[in-house]
């Protein structure tokens, strides 16, 4: 029988999984790449990718004496952050995506974005990137394959995930048992903001992203898979996929309490995850271990506790503000083998950003001679990508396939007024309400205005792959017989005085708040009831870096601002009717 020959790209190496090979063939037929490369995740492959990017200018070498293995990528100036207005959740039923997501019907979404993908890889290499989110042998881990035409994305995926041969082997093994992997298709396209979409198809376990190379839009294992698709799967399967750091707080008795904390993007997760306790605490034996800095997957164990893994293997951290004073662990982590994106450069080729030190950079993030008239030298959302295990505080338990048991969940946002430094929810249901009511001022991590207060439930507004009403109900469902749920707290490191300065010193000093939480968990600290929840007793939290008046102010709820806060929260929650669960009405 004579089949009509159809133009075929050069033969691929392929996998042992027909479903994967067929999908790669289909994508190649649509995107028409010159070459196909199946990534094995090896060191040699990474070196080749870097060499290619240095040759074509995608990467610039930084000072190899001070920063060995470090490179700088300058993105398109119009492609520097997540694009929430171009991000869609494409469920069959519109209501399933909820008022918290932009929605498009799946057929229309595929058609719209496939038109952009048609022929977009001509002259380019199609990379097949198998990855595993979570320790490769963990029952909580999930796999995906990202197809991309961006070597920058491949290199970042190698730092951020377990990428390559081991992931492919797991995908093949699971595929043979009928278990699907998440399919992510990505192209940088023309980097035209008018030809850009980030589409999610939770019912198909599929993602399509076109027109951006920025981390949150293009590293599909991260926000697209590990939060939007995973949150959908988690609801079906009885677990949680959350925008949370995970840290282990070791006390002087040698007991480690694991804490998960959800703050919106650029509101302090990476810093808290890598906290170094003040000297006095260190002398007593307190230590913080970093399990994860952005995403947490957790499920109830047979003991009734929530067990959590960090699905990622690297950090994609905010550069500005990172310094030897604020986050020495991060600074130590990024001295070598790091990809910097959109930072400034000193005259001797070192990476630089606002808040690092008092040197004056030579070039700004766009590669222009630095001129303060052009704004900050580093883009406010400039980032570093680096392997997690390079962090001095990296927890060995980050590789534990069973995860770590969570003792406390912390919600928090960037609130210049009203919200106090810390309070505790009265119980799980109240804690879910506190999370659902969360507000925060917007940051440079997403395009749009910065510093605008908005509601961001559980820091998941941009990341929940389904209706928030269903999501809150799912959270409430964990409170059932036999459950040993963590305590829930709310923090605010960003309360400001009338003069506009932060009242609380933050960073390492946040240890004092963590200590109070541990004391509450152990039952050794009292608390005072208030309209919003349980507050520390007067004098329970003090800091040598904060005046007595400032501490007093920061620990208090702003009574004058509370009525409006409560009105806003009520209005916000009404927006999820009729799916709003009754305990939150
Ligand atoms: P993430 O995006 O949630 O991981 O947030 P980061 O930890 O990267 O922090 C984002 C920005 O907030 C950086 O510029 C930090 O320096 C700053 N930041 C983090 N923690 C604190 C804090 O406790 N107090 C203050 N004032 N700023 C903080
Ligand atoms: P972040 O991660 O939370 O560390 O800022 C990136 C993002 O959320 O866009
Ligand atoms: Mn994040
Ligand atoms: Mn971070």
TrEMBL record:
Instruction: Name its co-factor(s).
Output: Mn(2+)
The record's free-text note on cofactor binding: Binds 1 Mn(2+) ion per subunit.
One Pfam annotation reads PEPCK_N
Q: Which PROSITE patterns match?
A: PEPCK_GTP (PS00505)
Q: Which residues form the Phosphoenolpyruvate carboxykinase GTP-utilising N-terminal domain?
A: 22-235
Catalyzed reaction equations: oxaloacetate + GTP = phosphoenolpyruvate + GDP + CO2
Molecular function in Gene Ontology: phosphoenolpyruvate carboxykinase (GTP) activity
Q: Where along the chain is the active site annotated?
A: 267
Pathway listed for it is: Carbohydrate biosynthesis; gluconeogenesis
Q: Where in the cell is it found?
A: Cytoplasm
Q: Which residues bind GTP?
A: 266-271, 383, 414, 507-510
Provide the E.C. number(s) assigned to this enzyme: 4.1.1.32
Residues noted as binding substrate in the record, renumbered to the chain? 82, 214-216, 265, 381-383
Residue span, Phosphoenolpyruvate carboxykinase C-terminal P-loop domain: 239-584
Coiled-coil features, chain-numbered ranges: none
What keywords would UniProt list here?
A: Cytoplasm, Decarboxylase, Gluconeogenesis, GTP-binding, Lyase, Manganese, Metal-binding, Nucleotide-binding
Could you confirm whether the keyword tRNA-binding appears in this record? no
Primary localisation category: cytoplasm
Please describe what this protein does: Catalyzes the conversion of oxaloacetate (OAA) to phosphoenolpyruvate (PEP), the rate-limiting step in the metabolic pathway that produces glucose from lactate and other precursors derived from the citric acid cycle.
Q: NCBIfam families per the record?
A: PRK04210.1
Similarity comment: Belongs to the phosphoenolpyruvate carboxykinase [GTP] family.
| Oligomeric and partner information | Monomer.
What's the protein called, per UniProt?
Phosphoenolpyruvate carboxykinase [GTP]
Protein species of origin:
Luteimonas composti
């Amino acid at each position: 029988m004579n089949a009509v020959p159809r133009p075929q790209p050069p033969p691929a190496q392929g996998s042992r999984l027909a479903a994967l090979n067929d999908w790669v063939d289909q994508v190649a037929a649509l995107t028409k790449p010159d070459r196909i490369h199946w990534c094995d995740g090896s060191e040699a492959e990474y070196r080749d990718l870097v060499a290619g990017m240095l040759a074509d200018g995608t990467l610039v070498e930084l000072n190899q004496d001070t920063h060995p293995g470090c490179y700088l990528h300058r993105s398109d100036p119009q492609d520097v952050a997540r694009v929430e207005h171009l991000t869609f959740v494409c469920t069959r039923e519109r209501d399933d995506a909820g008022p918290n997501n932009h929605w498009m019907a799946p057929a229309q979404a595929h058609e719209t974005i496939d038109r952009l993908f048609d022929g977009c890889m001509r002259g380019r290499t199609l990379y097949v990137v198998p990855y595993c989110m979570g320790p490769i042998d963990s029952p909580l881990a999930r796999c995906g394959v990202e197809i991309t035409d961006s070597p920058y994305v491949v290199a970042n995926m190698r730092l951020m995930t377990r990428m390559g041969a081991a992931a492919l082997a797991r995908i093949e093994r699971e595929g043979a048992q009928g278990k699907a992997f998440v399919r992510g298709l990505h192209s940088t396209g023309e980097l035209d903001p008018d030809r850009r979409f980030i589409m999610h198809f939770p019912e198909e376990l599929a993602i399509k992203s076109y027109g951006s190379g920025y981390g949150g839009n293009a590293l599909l294992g991260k926000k697209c898979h590990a939060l939007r698709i995973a949150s959908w799967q988690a609801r079906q399967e009885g677990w949680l996929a959350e925008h949370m750091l995970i840290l282990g707080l070791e006390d002087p008795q040698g007991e480690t309490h694991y804490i998960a904390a959800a703050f919106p993007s650029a509101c302090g997760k990476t810093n808290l995850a890598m906290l170094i306790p003040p000297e006095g605490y260190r002398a007593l034996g307190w230590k913080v271990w970093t399990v994860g800095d952005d995403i947490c997957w957790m499920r109830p164990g047979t003991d009734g506790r929530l067990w959590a893994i960090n699905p990622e293997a690297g950090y994609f951290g905010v550069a500005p503000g990172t310094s030897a004073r604020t986050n020495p662990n991060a600074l130590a982590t990024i001295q070598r083998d790091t990809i910097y994106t959109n930072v400034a450069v000193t005259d001797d080729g070192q990476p630089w950003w606002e808040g690092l030190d008092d040197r004056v950079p030579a070039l700004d993030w766009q590669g222009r001679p630095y001129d303060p008239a052009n704004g900050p030298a580093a883009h406010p959302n400039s980032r570093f990508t680096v392997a997690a295990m390079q962090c001095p505080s990296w927890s060995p338990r980050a590789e534990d396939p069973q995860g770590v048991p969570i003792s406390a969940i912390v919600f928090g946002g960037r609130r210049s007024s009203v919200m106090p430094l810390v309070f505790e929810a009265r119980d799980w249901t109240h804690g879910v309400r506190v999370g659902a009511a969360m507000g925060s001022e917007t940051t440079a991590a997403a395009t749009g205005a910065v510093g605008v207060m908005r509601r961001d439930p559980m820091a998941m507004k941009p990341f929940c792959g389904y209706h928030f009403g269903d999501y809150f109900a799912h959270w409430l469902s964990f409170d059932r017989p036999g459950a040993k749920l963590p305590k829930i707290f709310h923090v605010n490191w960003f309360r400001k005085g009338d003069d506009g300065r932060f009242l609380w010193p933050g960073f390492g000093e946040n240890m004092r708040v963590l200590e109070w939480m541990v004391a509450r968990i152990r039952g050794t600290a009292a608390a005072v009831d208030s309209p919003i929840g349980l507050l520390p007793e007067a004098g329970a939290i003090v800091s040598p870096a904060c005046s007595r008046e400032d501490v007093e102010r920061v620990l208090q709820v702003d009574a004058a601002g509370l009525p409006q806060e409560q009105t806003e929260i009520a209005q916000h929650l009404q927006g999820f009717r009729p799916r709003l669960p009754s305990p939150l009405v």
